[in-house]
Amino acid sequence: MNVVGLTKSFGARTLFEDVGLRLDPGDRLAVVGRNGVGKTTLLRCMAGQIAPDSGEVILPRGAVIALHDQRPPLGRDISLGEYIAEGLAQIRAVEATMRDLEQRMAAGDHGADVMGAYDRAQKEMERQDGYAWEAWLERVQRGLGIDADWVDRPLKSFSGGELTRASLARALVARPSVLLLDEPTNHLDLQSVEWLETALSEVDATIVLISHDRWFLESVTTKVLDLDGEKSRVWPMRYSAFRRAKAEALATQATLAAAQAREIARLERFVERWSAGTKARQAQSRKKQLDRIERVAPPPTKERSLAFGFPKTERPGRVVVEADGLSVGAGGALLLEKVSFAIERNQRIAVVGPNGAGKTTLVETLIGIRTPTAGRVSLGHRVAVGYFSQHAEELDPNRTIVETVLSGTALTNTQARTLLGRFLFSGEVVDRRVEMLSGGERRRLSLVQLIAHGGNFLVLDEPTNHLDIESREALEEAIEAFDGTVLMVSHDRALIDLVATHTLALEDGDIAIRPGGYSDLAAYREGLKSQEQAVRAEAPKAKKAAKPVAVATKPRRRLREVEKIEVRIAAVEDELREVAAQLADPGVLADRDAVAAAGERHVKLEADLAWLMQEWEVASAEAD
Q1: C-alpha closest to that of 59 among 73, 51, 48, 72
Q2: How many Å apart are CA 96 and CA 112, to the nearest integer?
Q3: How far is CA 134 from the centre of its chain?
Q4: Interval 182-215: pLDDT, tens
Q5: Among 188, 97, 195, 103, which residue's Cα sits nearest to residue 140?
């Protein structure tokens, strides 16, 4: 895939100019830059949805391109399953072509064009792993947390976050040769994000993605396209290396520009002093030297970014909040039952768990917004709660920005405007109504509210949603410097790893609090997995009467099922190769009945293989 001289403007504003890059098969490119530089627009130009002002996107012959963006598929009278299955249109078309060609061959048409077309269709099926598309569809939907009972429901019955996951599934099941992803981790829980990282490493495609998830960028991408104003540059390295290299390059540029400016000033003073004096000839030489100097531009002035801190707080008692025999539920479903724990002063705890496990329900119960189903919750002595909700729509859309901050606080108008300025709201902007703000602006305004109301126990629900990378880093610094207690729900692994002193994991209706950040939690889970694998490996050696054998009986039984399925898969694959060889045999091709039988057998074996692969994935997951 080649992008040549791509330029796009809206009115008098140029988003990007002369963007050029070459992407080889298997490249993983991160598109980065501040909000508003045109990252999403660039992806849509690459996908052919928006025409650039100049330049072109050159795709290899036969390339299939798929785009996942943040626009939910609204206004379509189809089910969620039908929408996701649209991504399979290409492979189903190849299947239909193969069936048509098999019928022609069965009817005696063995011409070079038919045989060549059939060979190409087979190769395309193999490239897309098309014989197992049903298993891949099931794996994608399960990995992204799309429940089986969702697929028959109409699109209009789903939330924006659920539709965004469906859009991502639709793009993935297509197995395109070029995959374009705009914020693919939005609305995914940590388990689904980790699944997506693994899936993208296996996808045979060129990938271009936009994300504010630094951990995800580091794990998935191998190159970075930096859109910096109207300029762009490709850095052939991972995201963290790019950040370091760019900082070093800007520092070097600033040093060179400053040194050159001093030299130019010295030459100009000489020319000005001696141009009509005794050293006129030398002055003329210096002037020519000045004209030949290729100017080094100083680095662009860094845009304003968030820089804030939380105010000093009153010291509470040792126990900030305590739950005793707590049960919580939502929508008639019991999410947590009879859990007991305490959060102590100065702890920073990250709440993690899959979507639907009850993370938001739990934190809202702890601070009194929800009533527990059973048990009790008590706040400690002198605890003042500051709550940051993930639902920005809770802001009054009819108030202005400054009115929102003043409401319920003792701040003066001047103090409120000063505080807003630290969050990039200044001048006439503060008199805008909340309903006019973008998602990112609403999140920043919610942070202002949080600071304005104060509190020594901050409860943050998805605080980094809609924030760019620079704003996320500013929030991390502020939380790290905060002298109170923090309880936060977050899918941002970089944030958790940097600021959390503990993780609170919701696991199968129970709670486990462990010291450390996300890396520590991942290492703990990896250790458990290794122990389970060791138990399975040692189980056959144990004596029959020994108790540990009973613990390992079920995993061992599932492993035997996996092995049996693998044997059946190998047998079907061998038979498929034999049938494919028959369909390429001139002797068979001369016999209409033999071709028809072989073609029918080929189709049946493909279906058998797809279902076996699905059985294998389910059995393997249960064995693990």
Answers
A1: 48
A2: 19
A3: 24
A4: 999 988 889 999 999 999 998 889 999 999 999 9
A5: 195
